[in-house]
Amino acid sequence: MAVFMGLAVGTLTSDALLHLIPEAFGIHKHSEDDGHDHGSGEIVIESFVWYAFAAIGSIYVFYLLETIFGMAGHSHTWPSDDDDDEDKVGKESTSNGVGKESTSNGVGKEGTNVGNWVNEPKKKKKNLNHLALMIIIGDGIHNFADGLAIAAAFTQSLTEGVGVTIAVFCHELPHELGDFAVLLQTKMRFRNAVFWNMASALTSFAGLYIGLSVATDPLARQWIFAATAGMFIYIALTDILPKLVHPPSMTIFIMTNVGILIGVTVMILLSIFEGHIKIT
Fold first, then answer.
1. Rounded Cα–Cα distance for residues 106 and 61 (Å)
2. How many domains is the chain built from?
3. pTM of this prediction?
4. d(Cα 132, Cα 125) in Å, to the nearest integer?
């Protein structure tokens, strides 16, 4: 999972900066437009590739700095935000008399996880069901956008399609596993969690078919690429990367960096050798 989380960050960010944004802005020219014969053996690297690589490098360097400085400044196990919240709730609940003696109220031996739900068990169940519904709907919309992006990419070129597909796969695997785990935590049955997870994934085919018909228009394709780039950057830098800044061990840190470097390398190679990739 650490490798796939790193792969997701590397592929999503690199795909957005190396492929999607240049396509959306109209600065990426293909062989039929730029006058270069990519199939003649000559490797043509456009200037925006280096600028995008510099942006990716700066993101990676600052990620390393924040993680290494954090590891050097903390000799104990990495704390999480949840631990801090639980400590705060534990102190508050203890002061309110919800301590170890609260077992008679059905809370348990420790009052650190009770929060505001000590006297409202029905409200907790309602919130969990609401959470499951939000996950299913949000995942369906997300998968629809992924299908739309894949369709638009393949209508542009083979390398664009391959790059977007790799990025989608690398971030969808840990994302879907995480959603499935959360559905199970909401007390949903295993069979129902599998069904709803697969049902939300099927919306990607709807996005694919709609994208294949709409993305034939170059202007529509540019809008799709722009929206997809924003989605990829948001997922990579706000949803996944913050979870990687505080690794629980050196092994996880190393595996995460292996995933990031592999993802970035794959996307850069696709950008450089796109004119030589053919299906025979």
1. 49
2. 1
3. 0.62
4. 11
